[in-house]
Amino acid sequence: MKKIYLAGPDVFLSDSIEQGQRKKELCQKYGFEGLYPLDNEIEDTFEHKADMGLHIAQANEKLIQECDAVIANLTPFRGTSADVGTVYEIGLAKGLNKMVLGYSNDGRNFLQRNLDELTGVRQQPNASYIDKENMALEDFDLVDNLMIDGGVHYPIIKNEVYQTGERFRDLEAFEACLMRLANHA
After folding, report:
1. The domain containing residue 66 runs over which residues?
2. How, if at all, do strands 2-7 and 32-35 pair?
3. Over the stretch 85-100, which tens digit does the pLDDT of each residue have?
4. Is the pTM of this model over 0.70?
5. Residues 100 and 40 in one domain
6. What is the DSSP string of 150-184?
7. What total number of domains does the chain contain?
C-alpha cells in the first residue's frame, strides 16, 4: 500500500486529530495509507520548547522519507501564501523525488490574494503592481508563488471555501488529489 504524507496547516486546527483521521480514512478509501504529522508520538520530556520543536521537525522529515507521495494543503495560512512549513515539506519531498500534489481551498490566484489583502499596493504605469516596500508583486496567474506551483507534479487543485472555520476542514479538493493520485498509479 502506497503511503501519503498529509502536509498542511491542518495540524493547527482545534480538532486536528479528528481532521487527520478524516483524511486518513479518505486515503484508505482510495487504497492508500495516510501519514499525518500528528501520528508521531512525541514525549513532552524536553527541557526547552525549541528542542521539542526541532524533534518534531525531524520526526516529520522521517515520515516524508518513508512516504511515496505528499498531498499538501496549500490554502493560504496566516497571510496570502501557503503555510511555510508545508512549503518546506513540499521542497523536501520534491528533492527526494516523491510525487507531490497540492490543493487550495481559496479559489483566488496569488496576485488577486495579494491585491485583496495587502495594504499600500500601487499599480505602475506598465500595469504591474508594487507593495509598500516598492517590491514587485508576482503575477504569473498561478495559485501561489511560482516555486510552490512548480514544486507539485500536477496543477494545484483549487476549491472555493470561504465559510469561516471551514477553509481548512473542507476535504473536497483533498479527495480530488487522491483521485488524481489513484489514476496516476
Report:
1. 2-107+144-184
2. parallel
3. 999 999 999 999 999 9
4. yes
5. yes
6. HTSSSPPEE----STTTTTT--HHHHHHHHHHHHH
7. 2
